[in-house]
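=== Structural record ===
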Amino acid sequence: MFPASHKTVIVVDHSPYFGKSCGHKIEYDIISKSRSGVSNIPLDPFCKSLWTCAVEAAFEYCRIVYDIFSSDRLIRFIAADTEARLLNTWKKSDQKLSDLMQIFAELGPANPEGNDENCSILHGLAAAVEVLCECTEEQHRVRTSMTDVASKVSNKGRIICFTSVKNESHVEVLKKSVQDALTQHNKIAAGSDNLLLINHCELVVLHVHIPEDSSLSLSSKARQNVSSNLSFRLISVVSAQHLASHLCKLVQLHHDLVMTTITGIPMKEEQNSSSSANYDVELLHHKDGHKEVRKNTSQSPSSSGDAGHKLLSQEENNILLKWCSPRGMSNELLYCTGAYRISPVDVNSRPSLCLTNFLLNGRQVMLEQPRKPGAKVMSHMLTSHGGEIFIHCLSTSRSYLEDPPSISEGCGGRVTDYRITDFGEFMKDNRLAPFTITDDQEKEVPISKAKTQLERQTRHWPMVISDTIIFNMASHIDPIPTIIAKLCLDEEDVTQCKKAIFHLVGIEAKGDPLPLPPGIRGKAPKKEEHYRQMWAELESLLKAYSSTSPEHKQVLDCLHDCKPVSNDCNAKKGSDKTTAKGTDKTSETEKAWKDLDKLQSMTHREKQDYLSSADSRTTEGAPPIKKLRISKDESRDRQKGGPVSLLSLWSSRIKAVNTMRHEEFAGRLEAVNNKTELYTHLKKDENGK
């Protein structure tokens, strides 16, 4: 429940070494107010000590944390010289910069002329581990509460140490001393009711030294795990003047902060009020303030161009936003998706002071993302509430207060295509009720049954009206969708489903159009196409449930009996040609006998008309009759108008069937009077002799 950022201990080295000058000279800024024009004598530049630079950097760390998180994040200070000096407590009343400045003023700076024999930073590190075991007010409240979360209180912390190490072995000594202190105090806390075990501690050592001390030069180290409850990181700062920038990066890393740079702020020149210039101000806030901007930038097609390059700077946690003309209370407040406290990076600069004073006077500033010319997207707004400045994240997509878009039309469309009424009924049929599980209860709890029922009822459930036909004609299809989704069917349910299928067959035979919405009718204007889609969707619905029980399979078989040629049958038509070929050949003989019986009941004139039109005539509901193969004599008889015997007709039909079954024997084709001469080559040899 409590992350490592909840408790931070800052240990500052108060040894004589930190009383030395940092080596960075600061010039006095003197402006002569005398009308006589007499110039003042310039003063010599001065240098800050390492102690002053460390304390100022630590105060900047605290200021940013206090501005953004109010009193949720707690910081303790310890000064280490010959002993550890605890400067404040974990109470929220002690988390004030004004009180801390007063305490440090009473402590005084480090004395560069003092004796450093007994001074050691190890005193401060041991005290830092000890105070991490103490409970904060929030930890104590949760720990003593009579709730389930009381046992889930974790104790993590972070130690930031300003010191100067001598060599690599000195660094190892620091790590070992902190690890030993963790082990010792955890043993003490295990037997105490007021102390907490330290689950994890992060040690950050800032190695501060001046450029003249080349012997103290060490390279920075990335974070490394010393043990399961201790991690270590070393940051080397050559000159103390850069401590503030390092602490600014640390506070972003430790507390999940990001930076927003506001560019293009119009401001009058301090020395010439008639002219103005544009300034930039850097603000820190929680990282969630960039969530929508980064998501839109990664999805936008312009993010790969110049606009995306301007929006996302080289630093990953910095975003550039452009100043817009201030305005009063506007409708953009309704579309706010988040509000986060801000803290200026350079709080004492003139642009930062002007911006904060401008916002504290009750004004709002709109911020836009730099895009291509003509595209203006307001993504953030700066305003103050109760004396604190917040950055508001504005929704750049559709408003949550509007209707959601249609699936078919995309962003900006209206809801006209959802099955809203059907979905409401679906939710009512699948509502859950409270249930208490007892020891003697069955293994299968109702939630598993509910999931099974939900899966069964959604096997075929179109979400959009235009994607279905059968659910748009409920008066004709009912009660098939309701009954077929049941787990078990009785004879009455099967009978009702069959009646509905017979009803659909009847309206198709009558040629009645299907009662479909205008949108679907416009997509498929032909009535035959409507019926084809309807039968295909109905078959998909019944197939989805056919494996549930034998009764479900009976309903699907009834549909196949009424409409044997379905989409699946047509799809398999090409693969079943080989199997159907033998069946077609067998049925040719039966067709020949049927034609023969039909010819016997005809008169002579009807037989002639039937044979003359045999090539083109087709009987109702049957395939065309194939042309009969007849001999030359029969052909001459037909040309003369003579009769054709039934035997000749039957023989011709049998020949046609046989020729379709196999290739005729070559010897039989050359036969004369159904006789084939054998050994013809012997006769040729005798004639040749």
About this structure: The first strand starts at residue 7 and ends at 13. The chain has four domains: 4-27+45-142+152-254, 257-394, 420-571, 582-669. Residues 577-600 form the longest helix (24 residues). The chain has a mean pLDDT of 75.
